Amino acid sequence: MNEKKLTVITGANSGNGKAIALKLHNLGYPLLLLDLKTNIIEKEIKENVMFSEVDVTNYEALSNAIKLGEEKFGPIGNMINNAGVMILEKADKQSHHVMSRMIDINFKGVVYGTQIALKTMLNKKEGTIINIASIAGIKGFDNHSIYCGTKYAVRGYSETVRAEVAEHGIRVALISPGVVKTNLLEGTTNTEIKKGYEEWRDQSNAFIHAEDIANSVVYVLEQPKNVTIREVVISPVTQKE
């Protein structure tokens, strides 16, 4: 089994990030948990952990937080870029401020986290980066135009970086979930679109849980060091699209 080194998780206060944090904490990983707020996850993890309230779109703040985590726990071994937002709207109606924010968090946040982690990993000649994307980075969905665009970008970026750093012993993996029942949709203000999505999801039982994503992360992390799981696409059996 691989040595458990410092693992950084963005978007760790709720949803998939929280589930990943709890799973890895129970397995003994030292954690640096990042989010705009960490008030929820701080109540559940008390040991072998450090918290920092950071916006992943702020490169310097993200870099400084990881540096402090490394000072406490040693060099970063795993970077899990999970922070993301999904605000649904028709392409012609979505606010440019909302579009910009989604692009910044969903794509730039992944790019920043990856680059910062690589500075240590390339020096150590080892490490694992897991980027949480979406099945919306594989196919399009109505009212998801910007969200899909950001996840397609994460998918392309991740595969390119994976090939670039492979010779240095660094693993880059992508996890692309289908519908997960979390609070990801809470930012959507179009009530008609939100209601339609939730009714479809719940009536067809077309969803999995954050714990399923956490299990996928563990599967990727605990492979032998010479094995890279390039991409995991995980969805409910009943999700046809």
What can you tell me about this protein's structure?
With 241 residues, the protein is an alpha/beta fold. The protein has helices spanning 15-26, 59-73, 96-124, 145-165, 191-203, 210-221, and strands at residues 6-10, 31-35, 49-53, 76-81, 127-132, 170-177, 231-234. Strands 3-2-1-4-5-6-7 form a seven-stranded parallel beta sheet, with helices on both faces. The protein is globular, with a radius of gyration of 17 Å.
Summarize the structure.
The chain has 241 residues and is an alpha/beta fold. 42% of the residues lie in helices and 16% in strands. Helix 1 (15-26) packs across helix 6 (210-221), helix 2 (59-73) runs parallel beside helix 3 and helix 3 runs parallel beside helix 4.
Radius of gyration: 17 Å
Structural class: alpha/beta
Terminal CA distance reads 36 Å
Strand order of the largest sheet: 3-2-1-4-5-6-7
Q: What is the assembly state of the chains in this entry?
A: single chain
Largest sheet: 7 strands, parallel
The total beta strand count reads 7
Order of helices and strands: EHEEHEHEHEHHE
Task: Identify the overall geometry.
Answer: globular
Would you identify the regions where 5 or more consecutive residues have pLDDT less than 50? none
User: How confident overall, as mean pLDDT?
Assistant: 92
Approximately how much helix is present in the residues?
A: 40-55%
Question: What is the tally of helical segments?
Answer: 6
* Proportion of beta-strand residues: 15-25%
